[in-house]
């Protein structure tokens, strides 16, 4: 298996980035029921070659520019293997002390490496971090915790009010740049939400925020939380932690940062200007599984309200109790599931075996590729760049109406050798293409990709 | 790493099952910040030996009888490695068709292997399955989906009613045997819940259920769902799918089965008597990561309402849209997170490389160990068995008051060579010990464990 994986990655350029299978292809290639007798490893791998590989989209192909990258590295695989090798379930400190403690330790390492505020360190009075599956799960958890804190507070004074009736008055605020999972998290949590306007850089307009919150309060609604985008999915826009954070503080509304993609930038000093004001935010989530070479899933959430996060939904049936409970963190209480994998191992292997210097270089390299692509676009007569390219995402379109860019995407789709995803900026009615760089591409790859796109566009025009 | 894992498992008996570290031990052994330069694999493994291994609770030690087992097997590790090797994120069918399609296929395999009703097959009109992280996540998802379907239905007739105000009237029903995560899922979902009485076998009393639901309806409440325990955590009790399922149908209440532990039994024909009435239930969850040799996390959820499950919370931003959408399942919509690992690979490797016959033997072996332990207890004068031992869990105590059994547990705890967890049957005020068998123990291990416990008890008495 080790050889297969090494070969797969070494030879990944031999494949088109996108597969050419049709829905339902797999059931035609594999048996329709589980085998009664064992099938050998070799036979299983033959089926991998025949049936699985043709249906893989190659996320680590140099021409994969869709969505945002998901991380791949050998140190991460080693950590992941070891996690499976121990095969523990970290549902309590006692169920494998190393699982809880390494998670706490590496998240403290990350606080320091990213120069996040000390209030997020495990040694702080009420802060700390946890590894979750995704930024979506983080949004759901911070909303649910704040929702229930607010319910309890109100019910202490008005015990006759139903929880749901109270929640009907709660409102969460974010801009159209927020990830779709934020809207979904509100629906899952039964919370109302409102979109705040954005400025020309697509960052949240704090005057609009203040206005809406004040109006809502006047109408008897309960402003609960603002969720900031820090490297948004559509345009890689950054809300200002300083402006929004300070505004939230003055409005007495909690403030969560969804830095799923953008957060990893903060290991490089040159991006720390984006951190200005982070001391005002209450929680911060970023995904090492995007740019930090740690396999999906590894999403980090820090909060300055650890005690509430772990108490609001805690359950401790007798079979999980242990004698040292008062001295340990029980991370299960901050997440949806009871069971926990030993995910800290893969992040720890990555931080060790690369070291911060190499990880910084990798971040810089991917951002430089974006700059290179932006320069090429700006040198042309036909393209325009839609976003402020601060990090690894370039958003671009053909000048003129949207129809041309849609046609360009249709042409590019027919060729499975490049994979880009489209997006839209509603307020300016701009349809555009997203090129999200990864550390697997070289300058030559990006130039070739540009030339391919340019050639398709020229032909179209 | 492969060698390290093989050695670890081969030599696992050399360790005590429980570690002897104190909270905070790890930060004394490892650096307090991430390394700037890379640390070699060998140095990292030296730290594993020095700092991680001493803090591991050995879940695959033959004397691990706590909680319920979590699965370990080499085929599962191979599948997991390949999943990391491809390193894809299955957030849509297009993002790796094989990821969605293999998941659909192996869950169909399982429906057939367990003789579950055809309404759970992907080829059925409105049924299908998904792999989730845990039974907790499954409970949350089925509750959230039903909650929102019910809200929408009521709001169609009474559009002025707030969602929360409607939810304040909704009630979920289960017995005290339900897992703690079920209670927690209700709190996360903002749903009221009520405990239904149980009979002498700790199965749900359907007369009590009918009575409570009728009363609630009379009071204007909205009975939403009944959640059944199928191999409960405390006592391995089984609610009757037939009796409860039929009752739910007549009461017009949805019915979900949490078979996290017990579900795997159904691959053996001799346990299928427990399935009687399964055609009445609406959804069913079980964890291959407990007894089916597939590493945590791998929890299967089937529902007979696939379309609602995938539509209720679906979000499809433009960047996730693809041309073949109308023909594909988008499993992300049935779960909390957007991202999806390729977990079907490890289950598929397990089903292939063991084959159903060997998996059945493994289930039987673990259940026979429980029978053996039960016989030993029943032959003694001092112990009594608390549960009806139908599967792999034996619940036992010293005859007489609870204090003696508590003292016995305290003595056993001082010795880190056996790991059992306690539980309590509140309605009879019985404190007891749980011995959950695994496929890693032999008859000799179980007899030795019995002798050790007996010796400790004799000394105590």
Topology:
The structure is a homodimer of 461-residue chains.
Chain A (H helix, E strand, L loop, with lengths): L1 H9 L30 H12 L21 H13 L10 H17 L14 E5 L2 H23 L5 H5 L2 E6 L4 H10 L2 E5 L9 H13 L3 E8 L11 H11 L2 E5 L24 E4 L1 H4 L7 E5 L2 H6 L32 H36 L3 E3 L7 E6 L3 H13 L6 E5 L4 E7 L6 H18 L1
Parallel strand pairs in A: 2-3, 2-4, 4-5, 5-6
Antiparallel strand pairs in A: 1-7, 6-7, 8-9, 9-11, 10-11
Helix pairs in contact in A: 3-12, 4-12, 5-7, 8-9, 12-14, 13-14
Question: Would you mind describing this structure in some detail?
Answer:
Chain A is α/β, with parallel strands linked by helices and 461 residues long. The first copy, chain A, has two domains: 80-349, Type I PLP-dependent aspartate aminotransferase-like (Major domain) (Aspartate Aminotransferase, domain 2, 3-Layer(aba) Sandwich), CATH 3.40.640; 355-460, Aspartate Aminotransferase, domain 1 (Alpha-Beta Complex), CATH 3.90.1150.10. Chain A contains 14 helices and eleven strands. Chain A has helices at residues 2-10, 41-52, 74-86, 97-113, 135-157, 163-167, 180-189, 206-218, 241-251, 288-291, 306-311, 344-379, 402-414, 443-460; strands spanning 128-132, 170-175, 192-196, 222-229, 254-258, 283-286, 299-303, 383-385, 393-398, 421-425, 430-436. In chain A, the strands form two sheets. The first copy, chain A, has a seven-stranded mixed sheet, with helices on both faces. In chain A, strands 8-9-11-10 form a four-stranded antiparallel sheet. In chain A, helix 13 packs across helix 14. The interface between A and B is large, with 134 and 135 residues.
């Amino acid at each position: 298996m080790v050889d297969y994986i090494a070969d797969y990655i070494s030879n990944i350029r031999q494949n088109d980035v996108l597969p050419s299978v049709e829905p339902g292809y797999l059931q035609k290639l594999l048996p329709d029921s589980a085998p009664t007798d064992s099938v050998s490893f070799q036979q299983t791998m033959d089926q991998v070659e025949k049936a699985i590989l043709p249906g893989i989209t190659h996320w680590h192909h140099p021409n994969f520019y869709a969505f945002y990258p998901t991380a791949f590295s050998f140190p991460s695989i080693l950590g992941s293997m070891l996690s499976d090798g121990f095969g523990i379930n970290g549902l309590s400190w006692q169920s494998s002390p190393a699982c809880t403690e390494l998670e706490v330790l590496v998240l403290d390492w990350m606080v320091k490496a990213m120069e996040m505020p000390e209030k997020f360190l495990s040694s702080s009075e009420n802060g700390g971090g946890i590894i979750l599956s995704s930024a979506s799960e983080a949004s759901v958890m911070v909303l649910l915790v704040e929702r229930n804190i607010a319910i309890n507070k109100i019910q202490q004074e008005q015990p006759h009010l139903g929880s749901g009736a109270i929640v009907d008055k709660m409102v969460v605020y974010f801009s159209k740049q927020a990830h779709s999972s934020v809207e979904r998290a509100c629906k899952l949590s039964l919370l109302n939400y409102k979109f705040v306007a954005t400025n020309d850089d697509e960052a949240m307009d704090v005057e609009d925020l203040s206005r809406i919150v004040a109006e809502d309060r006047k109408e008897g609604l309960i402003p609960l939380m603002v969720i900031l985008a820090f490297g948004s999915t559509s345009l890689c826009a950054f809300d200002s932690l300083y402006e929004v954070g300070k505004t939230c503080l003055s409005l007495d509304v909690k403030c969560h940062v969804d830095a799923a993609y953008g957060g990893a930038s903060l290991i490089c000093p040159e991006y720390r200007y984006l951190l200005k004001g982070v001391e005002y935010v209450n929680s911060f989530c970023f995904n090492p599984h995007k740019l930090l070479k740690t396999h999906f899933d590894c999403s980090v959430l820090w909060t300055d309200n650890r005690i509430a996060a772990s108490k609001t939904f805690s359950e401790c049936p007798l079979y999980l109790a242990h004698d040292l409970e008062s001295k340990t963190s029980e991370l299960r209480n901050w997440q949806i599931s009871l069971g926990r994998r030993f995910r800290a191992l893969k992040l720890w292997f990555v931080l060790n075996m690369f070291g911060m210097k190499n990880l910084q270089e990798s971040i810089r390299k991917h951002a430089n590729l974006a700059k290179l692509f932006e320069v090429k676009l700006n040198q042309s007569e036909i393209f325009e760049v839609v976003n402020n390219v601060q990090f690894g995402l370039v958003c671009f379109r053909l000048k003129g109406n949207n129809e041309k860019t849609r046609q360009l995407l249709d042409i590019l789709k027919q060729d499975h050798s490049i994979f880009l995803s489209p997006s839209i900026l509603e307020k300016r009615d701009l349809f555009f293409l997203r090129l999200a760089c990864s550390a697997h591409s070289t300058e030559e790859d990006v130039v070739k990709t540009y030339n391919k796109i340019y050639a398709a566009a020229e032909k179209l025009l």
